[in-house]
User: Fold these one by one.
Assistant:
Number 1:
Amino acid sequence: MQGVRIAATDLACRRGDRVLFRGLALELAGGEALQVAGANGIGKSSLIRILAGLMRPFAGSVERAGTIGLIDERPALDPHMPLGRALRFWQRLDGAVDNQLARLGLAGLSDVPVRYLSTGQRKRAALARLIGQQAAVWLLDEPLNGLDAHAVALVEALVAEHCRAGGIAVVASHQPFALAAMRRLDLAEFAA
Ligand SMILES: Nc1ncnc2c1ncn2[C@@H]1O[C@H](COP(=O)(O)OP(=O)(O)OP(=O)(O)O)[C@@H](O)[C@H]1O
């Protein structure tokens, strides 16, 4: 994961007729992690979408070096397919990487249609898909939502491993995220 980087300069975000934040800058290199914190509606998801390149900023720019892996509230898995087949669909595109299904507590759920998975199981399935993707830059929007304490610790461990391997993680969450040396960006400081 050499040369991995994500940087934003003088970023502003507008939704509807409201500017949510402005003057926001950030820069992360390989191995670094950042928590984006702030109250409901302040613009955390919007920032993640801008960083992912899914939404145009109102002002400013984003530079990315490295593939992007995104987790948000929608798992990128066909809801009608059994979980195993839905993940294999992506494996054919991403390469046959170990999705760590057993570690994620999904080993027994291969035959269950994605739409029947519980909230936490769906989040775990999205993590399996993310691991398979082998992206350098993880953009995680509320990755802890709906997870039990064991799964929260697992996500924290996965992010730590990803950063140790030279990846970048940006985690938007209003919940505490336990990761040594994680930087914190409070969106309220950039409120327009
Ligand atoms: N398409 C849209 N048009 C207009 N306003 C929008 C649109 N999408 C989101 N918003 C508004 O933008 C604001 C920021 O939303 P965003 O989802 O980025 O916040 P958030 O910090 O992630 O919130 P939460 O913690 O509740 O997930 C909210 O007030 C929301 O109502």
Note: The chain has a mean pLDDT of 94.
Number 2:
Amino acid sequence: MKTVLVGVGQAGGKVATALAEYDDEMGFRAIRDALAINSAKADLQGLPLDTVLIGQDVVKGHGVGGDNQLGAEVMQNDADEVLNELSGRIDSETEAIFIVAGLGGGTGSGGAPVLAKELERIYDVPVYAIGILPGRDEGSLYQANAGRSLKTLAREADSTILIDNDAWRETGDSVAEGMATINERIARRIGLLLAAGEPIEDRSMGLGGGGIDRDVGQSVVDTSEVINTLRGGGLAAVGYASSEASEDPDDNVNVVTSTTRQALLTGTSLPEATTADAALLVAAGRPDSLSRKGVERARSWVEEETGSMEVRGGDFPLDTDDISALVLLSGVEGSPRVTAFMNRAAEAQAETDDQSEGAAKRDAAESFQNDELDDLL
Ligand SMILES: Nc1nc2c(ncn2[C@@H]2O[C@H](COP(=O)(O)OP(=O)(O)OP(=O)(O)O)[C@@H](O)[C@H]2O)c(=O)[nH]1
């Protein structure tokens, strides 16, 4: 999927960098351009991307200090400059725009929904968001910010892929190490998803220098399958797992199915998200090890497990010794983790508003409709 990537805020800039670097290292060229936007000058310095500093007249390059309403305001005020900067990058080849942001802070949290709205107004290609949820141990301001931002982003973007900061953290990591690990994991998963839809001849095949035969590819994933999977809108998640391929092709039936189970049951960006409205299974590996029977069985298993009748599946030929499974889930609003998060956010907002009686437990679908969490726009 030929993508223009925009990172907003500190987390957005770092994750956009990790993604652009991964795409480049792998030679995928799915990310055609990447831009980082922030109201804090220091967070833009040192990023190997083109950057735009917003809100300079208001916060003088010092960031919005976790105030996401101010984050939304400065993005709105400087929207013309940002759109101008993007207009030279989004062209007739662009198939999707991805905005990535940490939803718990100020600039990314407030800025991402505003930017999504502005881009939707102008461009026909889908505008997707990658929204990073604060970990459970982050303070109430982060939770309340993320709840408000998510509610707004889910409405403004064509789909929002959620990454829970608690999902891929390794125990024992410091916060900085933890972030670096999470960012690498996001880069690999989203990076594969974007590359999976690219035609084979467009890939430089950094892993094998063109050694993949073109006519393997009747079931190769197409960009339109990613877009169709996300068409229902709302919230999405990605799962991923990888195992060594066996030399015996028959054994790879089981390798594909067990790797897919791991991807969905233990490897998703939103733990416990297994029911979905639609899903896409991408099996990556050498064409001769990607067992057709295995991929078909794995796809049927995803159908049963997610309860969705709309599960697409396909291959992603890669010259590696592993078989990887990437599962994209769309329509995960009802998952327990989203419910728990929206309750946590509503409680945090009630705490900050001193209206604790407003924080009764409700299900997540309802929290996207009711007034417990303020809308940002
Ligand atoms: N995955 C990941 N999350 C991060 C990273 N840096 C910060 N976060 C998370 O993002 C949230 C804070 O957002 P930031 O991006 O730091 O804030 P900002 O948008 O720059 O906003 P201000 O600093 O208030 O202007 C918190 O929930 C952090 O846990 C990162 O590198 N990776």
Note: The longest strand covers residues 235-244.
